[in-house]
Predict the structure.
Amino acid sequence: MKRIGILIVAYNAASTLASVLDRIRPEFAERVTEILVCDDHSKDATYLVGLGYKQLMPDLPLTVIRHPMNFGYGGNQKAGYQWALDHDLDIVVLLHGDGQYAPEILDQIVAPLENDECDAVLGSRMLEPGSARRGGMPAYKYIGNRILTKAQNALVGTSLSEWHSGYRAYSVRALRDIPFQSNSDGFVFDTEIITQLVESGKRIVEVPIPTYYGDEICYVNGLGYARDVMRHVVRYRMHKMGLGSGDATFVEQQYELKHDEETSHGVIRDWLRSRRDLDILDLGCAEGVVSLQLVEQGNRVTGVDRDEWPKVAGKLDRFVTADLDDGLPAEIDEQYDIVLAADILEHLREPGMLLTQVREHLAPNGWVLVSIPNAVHWYPRLRMLFGRFDYDRRGILDRGHLRFFTRRSFERLARSTGLLVTRCQAVGLPLEILNRGGGENPVSQKVPLRILAFLDRAITRLWPNLFAYQYVMRLEKK
């Protein structure tokens, strides 16, 4: 049997706490390992009520604590989940001390976790049509709940019926895998932990719960809460797209293949589409976003990167482990028809040194295909105009970029290494990144964004210095 813990978060719940504990069915209480009442520095006798109940029911595995200060709704949960981790529980259920959620159905809440069907269970008042309104949920709260849930699903790529119920259960093992301690101490904590579960690939199941509205005091500022949850999910979606610090997307992800033909990967594929039986060197191949397609075309590809990622292991003709900041590895001792340096030179301290070495390994009539971000694109210009030069998770201001190029500065660098730019194509914004984090919702294929993509391509051709997101260049020996 799994070790089950109940976390009861309580604030000014002196009049309801005993009733909540009474409503835990005896047959379920026998299966419970620990019950923790976390009094969040209440102004009433919540803590004393909890201690009195413990004396009256000595057989109940009840622990009552009072925080030395008010931790907030989210901070109270953090303390409780850490307690669950410290006590090596398997399941922890969140219950509110005000009686808003029914303790009578605790067994239904934990059942999917006991059966290993999921990693988290969310109680939902919206699964059964009409249940929420019949249970007394005010119309304005019902409408607000539905609107917020729909928006959050669209931004995070989920299909939950409700994001805003506080009746939940978690696998403690899942809690170990997410940084819940970094979440807010306020009410947005419940939204943050859902996005963390989604980000880490955890399975979420919803179960219907009854709705009850009594005379409990609501401490949630509705408009402020709506603002905070929307701010968080928008921030999460931006991080999935590569914008911002990226701390909300804590699961490590490598660069993704750009499928659109108007992106740098699409241009490189187009330039090589009709060429076969080539010896290709892919510098910084990462997960093989381009090189694996070139292998499928019938080319011989050698990949170089600091680590051999599982997606390319054994699939390239040859792989060499090396840090390109130190130059080409000694194992590269032959000549190549094509050398790819896609989205890699900006990560190096001395890209000119690498290009000089590449030139020596370029076959007669060979090409070096390079893609670089445009440092004077309108996005970094706008950021600097407002006095901000923060790095992003990806993109032009990728936090891993060490060098920044314009078209002219890169052409000068290439000439200094004995290479000449013989073809250059400006590419616009990779709007397909809007799909990242959106689940099955292909946002970039919506008509408004298709129009935006068309306009972006048009102005990129007219004024590439300002609107080119990247340049793709073909270099040949002088």
Summary: The mean pLDDT is 90.
